[in-house]
Amino acid sequence: MRKLTQALIATGIALSLSGCATVYPTTQSPINSNVKVRGENVDFEKVVDAYLITPQLVKQLAPRTVKASDNIGLEQQIKRYQYKIGVGDILNVTVWEHPELTTPAGAYRSAAESGNQVHANGAIFYPYVGQLNVVGLTVNQVRDKLAKALSAYVTDPQIEVTIASYQSKKAYITGEIKNPGQQFLTNIPLTLLDAVNKAGGLSDNADWHNVTITRHGKEEKVSLAELIQFGNLTQNRLLSDGDVVHIPRNDANKVFIVGEVSKPQMLKITHYGMTLTEAIAQSGGIDKLSADATGIFVIRGQRDVNKSTVSNEAEKIDKIADIYQLDLTNATSYVLGTEFYLKPYDIVYVTTAPATRWNRVIAHVVPPLSGFNNLTESILRVRNW
């Protein structure tokens, strides 16, 4: 790796001394320079695209607008929802005017302690009736079934059946939540939003955008950011028995601020997003003495590019990075910076080099991007250059 770094520096020096034509990034300006990547010559114009940050570009790259919307399908699911009794649930049975058949209770016994538990065979034991299979039934169905069975002993029995304790069905919520664990399903439908609220809300390190719900071995990704921030109810779900809701950490939602800023650092993108201006401001702003106002670059690597695809064969060369330039000598650019949203693993680089040395800047920054796993190494190269 040290040899590669030395080779890159030598390439930059050779380019600056040889009088090669200088390339200025335009709204879509390829970079005409060659550099060694994995031992082969690769044209920058084939692996990198350079853009000026303009109002048109900001509009094109702006995050998708999310609007509040209803979820008719979920509303219908909730209306149709009925809790089905399962093994472990405890039932409370009342037979009016027949206290001898009513589930006994007392001052020192709760309904759950004195009720009829559904056993592993799916049945409860009830006087005169014996074993009564109740698994998979609603309380109304159990009531009708029990009334029919008791009619041989009681004239027109008036029965009420309730669930004293819900124990059979549960969903799990894990990850970056304040109170992770299981949540029992009851006669009240449990939605994703309900589960998050019951668990105390998300932690500070939660990734709001990539929440997964696993059901029967299949994963579905939903965005709590859209649901909670914007009221997009299409991201809400009705949870079922065995569902696993996982809120991942936001470790991947980070950007790197390097170069001529007061405090080079790594920043985490919040669930509200982060703009270029915010990132620079959080890093203490650009160094007024050494920074070049025309040389603020955002380097966005292509994460799905395999290093082995980069070769001198045109048909096999993939783009390894998009590079965006903000020119703060133009007053309107300050506004553009507040509307240019960063993406995970973006590198914001403030250079001392004027735009006329663009080729040299890119020669030191881009090659490591041919392998996305080397992004951290590219940051170190830029900072030490």
TrEMBL record:
GO terms for molecular function: polysaccharide transmembrane transporter activity; porin activity. Keywords: Cell outer membrane, Ion transport, Lipoprotein, Membrane, Palmitate, Polysaccharide transport, Porin, Signal, Sugar transport, Transmembrane, Transmembrane beta strand, Transport. PROSITE patterns: PROKAR_LIPOPROTEIN (PS51257). It is a multi-pass membrane protein. Residues 169-247, 254-350 form the SLBB domain. GO terms for biological process: monoatomic ion transport. Residues 80-163 form the Polysaccharide export protein N-terminal domain. InterPro entries: Poly_export, Poly_export_N, SLBB_dom, Wza_C. Residues 1-21 form the signal peptide. The keyword Ribosomal protein does not apply. Residues 353-382 form the Outer-membrane lipoprotein Wza C-terminal domain. Pfam families: Poly_export, SLBB_2, Wza_C. It is found in: Cell outer membrane. GO terms for cellular component: cell outer membrane; pore complex. It comes from the Bacteria. Belongs to the BexD/CtrA/VexA family. This is Sugar transporter.
